[in-house]
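Researcher: Next entry: Cell division ATP-binding protein FtsE (Xenophilus arseniciresistens).
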Amino acid sequence: MTAHPVPLRGAGASPLAAGAATEPVIRLQAVQKTFQLPNGQRFDAVCSVSLDIAAGDVFGLIGKSGAGKSTLLRLINLLERPDAGQVRVGGRDLTALSRAQLRETRQNIGMIFQQFNLLQNATVFENVAFPLRIHGRNATADIDARVRECLALVGLEDKVHSYPAQLSGGQKQRVAIARALAPRPQVLLCDEPTSALDSETTQSILDTLREINQKLGVTIVIVTHELSVVEALCRHVAVVEQGQVVEQFAVREPAAERLTVLGRELDALVRRRAREAALDLELAQEAAGVPAALRVAGGAAHV
Ligand SMILES: Nc1ncnc2c1ncn2[C@@H]1O[C@H](COP(=O)(O)OP(=O)(O)OP(=O)(O)O)[C@@H](O)[C@H]1O
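Model: Predicted structure:
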């Protein structure tokens, strides 16, 4: 896939980025979300969570069904408004903003969903142009250029006139990624982005997300129930249980002890994949006739 350079939202380029150099791009401080249930009872979905996510990171949120992962993710762009606590993104406290300011600030936070959430009666072009048009400040030529740039980034230049119904699941998710990136966000939130896709398509979407992170520096936060997704994509992970972050760690640094079963399972997977990669490398070198003394180690020893 050809990737076209897209200008980064630089630290000095936008008031949204003010303060970003001095604190993590995402900072949740004691955020709380309680839902009122139909029977009148109250349910604490997120309980006083504090979490820092550094600029440029790829951060996974894992946990059992109902643990509060999606609610936590949706607190980051205030799709869910916290009952208490602060949500800071790009140095701004989102909870203190007016509606108009929040609309503006949300351009800095793209989001993709399990079911893609595309406009069915709009072409691929119009889907990607949508977030640029609703802010009404972009000239038509600029929108056109930006839409094509984003579609190139996800390898879908040739689908510009197609409708969502004419696309595969993976292509729909690529359109959703292009749409999320169109306003040049610092942060991309992903809510189970590969859960509706087969494993091959999942791999190619993960490759695209990795490329976006590496080339554009966009910080990615991803909710998933698939440990393989975390292993393949994330640098850091937090395990969520009953509305709380019970542990967080660097994915590539398996430890002797973890607090949670999911943490232990993820470590085991990381170790297994590292061993497999080391073996593959060894076999490839052997097949290529590289003398044993000159072979490069695969790195499994580190984990
Ligand atoms: N709008 C709402 N009203 C009432 N309860 C809600 C609402 N949204 C979420 N919940 C409840 O909050 C809890 C956490 O939900 P959430 O979707 O964040 O969990 P999750 O970890 O993402 O689960 P899953 O992996 O199944 O999507 C669940 O028990 C859910 O039923």
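Model: Note for the record: DSSP finds eight helices and ten strands in the chain.
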